[in-house]
Design a protein that fits this description.
Radius of gyration: 19 Å
Largest sheet: none
Number of helices: 7
Shape: elongated
Oligomer: single chain
Helix content: over 70%
Structural class: mainly alpha
Number of strands: 0
Order of helices and strands: HHHHHHH
Strand content: under 5%
Distance between the termini: 17 Å
Length: 223
């Protein structure tokens, strides 16, 4: 408890910024989902509306990221290793970057998705949305842990990491199926196949970076 109190006196916690950044990731989730739904409905004006909202969110996320980097304590009074924190921030930020990248890529071409694969694509979008919602609970639990260093709060962090890993695994299973299906589908235009394959990969990157962030957080709380 004394350790936590002293740290609270001599430092400003970077978790305030991390929580704000995680809130933006959570905010991007429904926007990403609505953008893909609009694209599938060929409502391209609505797609661009949601796409642009994600761009704004990602830009705000970059501002928060720079603020965190610029205000880290110069001394040693931090509850976590500075370089681990920066690496964690990098992976958390890449979640938001990849969300934007997926929509950027989708916007480059109006591709007709075969009806038999629409449900699987929507399933992957649902898994990605779960991933985007899962970062905020992780950061919230980590903030509590680094204030208290209690075993109970550490267990909460580990539980949040486990949830992210489960979401990533579920997303990966759908991604592998979609990639196999798209590689083997007799598209008339190879550009269509490339557009869809790369889209699925971009979406998979969102989950991959979330898992990377969870793994780094696991290292940060290691005893």
């Amino acid at each position: 408890m004394m350790r936590s109190a002293l740290l609270g006196i001599f430092r400003k916690s970077p978790f305030e910024g991390l929580l704000r950044h995680a809130e933006l990731i959570r905010e991007a989730g429904p926007l990403f989902k609505m953008a893909v739904l609009a694209y599938l409905d060929e409502s391209f004006e609505d797609f661009e509306k949601y796409h642009n909202k994600v761009i704004v969110v990602e830009s705000e996320g970059d501002t928060v990221k720079r603020n965190i980097r610029g205000h880290l304590p110069k001394g040693i009074l931090m509850p976590v290793d500075k370089f681990q924190l920066l690496w964690y921030l990098r992976e958390q930020d890449k979640i938001l970057d990849s969300t934007q990248d997926a929509l950027h890529w989708l916007s480059y071409r109006n591709t007709q998705i075969p009806d038999e694969y629409v449900d699987d694509l929507l399933l992957m979008v649902e898994k990605i949305t779960n991933v985007l919602k899962s970062i905020h609970p992780l950061v919230l639990a980590a903030e509590s842990y680094f204030q208290s260093f209690s075993e109970n709060h550490r267990a909460m962090v580990k539980s949040a990491i486990k949830q992210i890993r489960e979401y990533e695994f579920e997303s990966d299973q759908v991604e592998r199926k979609l990639l196999s299906d798209f590689f083997n589908y007799p598209f008339d235009n190879p550009t269509t196949a490339f557009h869809l394959v790369r889209l699925v990969e971009y979406m998979g990157d969102i989950s991959n970076h979330a898992q990377n962030a969870g793994d780094m957080m696991r290292a940060m709380i290691a005893r």
